Amino acid sequence: GQNIDQPTEMTATEGAIVQINCTYQTSGFNGLFWYQQHAGEAPTFLSYNVLDGLEEKGRFSSFLSRSKGYSYLLLKELQMKDSASYLCAVIDSNYQLIWGAGTKLIIKP
Amino acid sequence: DTGVSQDPRHKITKRGQNVTFRCDPISEHNRLYWYRQTLGQGPEFLTYFQNEAQLEKSRLLSDRFSAERPKGSFSTLEIQRTEQGDSAMYLCASSLEGLETDTQYFGPGTRLTVL
I need a labelling partner for A39 at 20 to 30 A (CA). Which of A50, A80, A107, B106 fits? Predict the structure, then answer.
């Protein structure tokens, strides 16, 4: 079966750095997405990785290791507005997007 | 470009009634997806269109669910004889078929409550 694992919930302090991990077992791999979703709202696109390595985009960075089936999302200089769920999703060999359940990130002042 | 829009944003209905939701994708996007999401879960794939063709439908999708995209632009999702278990957020996303990435952009969702 296909599976994407993320921690259910994480807590971090405003101004700090947090790393949200994602491991996946899918039938094939054609890329990995990270989305941010605030409560009651739709997911918004954050990043896309298809090659190994780190992609940096402002305060957010995403890392991929295809051999390990592993990715992480790194958030720096945390702000209260970063409190949200972060969803990891993988494109499988059928080009279907397989979603994780999301990690709820709580930012404390 | 106004992004993906969905209508209505909220729908409350009684069990057994039929409901229809509409999605207007980003204008140049040829792919359109419907998902269902419940609290604490990631989006659950329902169906997918490329232009007007419905290319894939989840095996988990009941026959009570049907979707159309008649002219390859907007799409409708109909749920017949709604059940309380159908209560969820229904998300629509669109994307542009590409060589390297097929990033899906989501609409605001329609929250369905079945009483």
Answer: A50
Give the residue on B whose Cα is nearest the Cα of A49.
B101
Asked if B91 lies within 8 A of A42 by C-beta distance, the reply is yes
Question: What values do phi and psi take at A8, rounded to 5?
Answer: -70, -40
Give the residue on A whose Cα is nearest the Cα of B36: A42
Across the interface, do A89 and B44 touch by the CB < 8 Å criterion?
no
The pLDDT profile of chain A, 109 residues, written as one tens digit per residue, is 789 999 999 999 999 999 999 999 999 999 999 999 999 889 999 999 999 999 998 999 999 999 999 999 999 999 999 999 999 999 988 888 899 999 999 999 9
pLDDT tens-digit profile of B39-67? 889 999 999 999 988 888 887 778 999 99
Instruction: Classify A82 as helix, strand or coil.
Output: helix
